[in-house]
Amino acid sequence: MSDVVRRGDMYRWEIVRAVTEQRVFGIVRSAGPQEALAAAEAVLDAGLHAVEVALTTPRALTAAAR
């Protein structure tokens, strides 16, 4: 799993910098939080630095909190 997910202690400016430098981020939509978390981990493992869990995903905030 990516350091971005594990740390959880990034400052807002660090997140903005990571997204700005890469200029792209993954957007995950899924059937539930477990699937969203698995998809987000796959996107991060593929090399992206930021992932959005769409709020159209059921219990999306549960997935985003992890």
In words, what does this structure look like?
- InterPro entries: Aldolase_TIM.
- By secondary structure, this protein is mainly alpha-helical.
- The protein has one domain (3-65).
- Helices cover 53% and strands 9% of the residues.
- It has helices at residues 3-7, 12-22, 33-45, 60-65; strands at 26-28, 51-53.
- It is globular and about 30 Å long.
- The termini are close together.
Summarize the structure.
With 66 residues, the protein is mainly α. It has four helices and two strands.
Distance between the termini: 12 Å
Taking strands numbered 1, 2, ... along the chain, how are they ordered across the largest sheet? 1-2
Number of discrete helical segments: 4
- Strand portion: 5-15%
Radius of gyration, taken over Cα atoms and rounded to an integer in Å: 11 Å
Count of individual beta strands: 2
| SSE ordering | HHEHEH
Provide the structure class. Answer: mainly alpha
Task: Tell me, rounded to a whole number, the average pLDDT.
Answer: 83
Shape: globular
Helix content: 40-55%
Largest sheet: 2 strands, parallel
Low-confidence stretches: 1-7
How many domains? 1
Write a concise keyword list for the protein shown above.
2 strands, mainly alpha, 66 residues, 9% strand, 4 helices, disordered N terminus
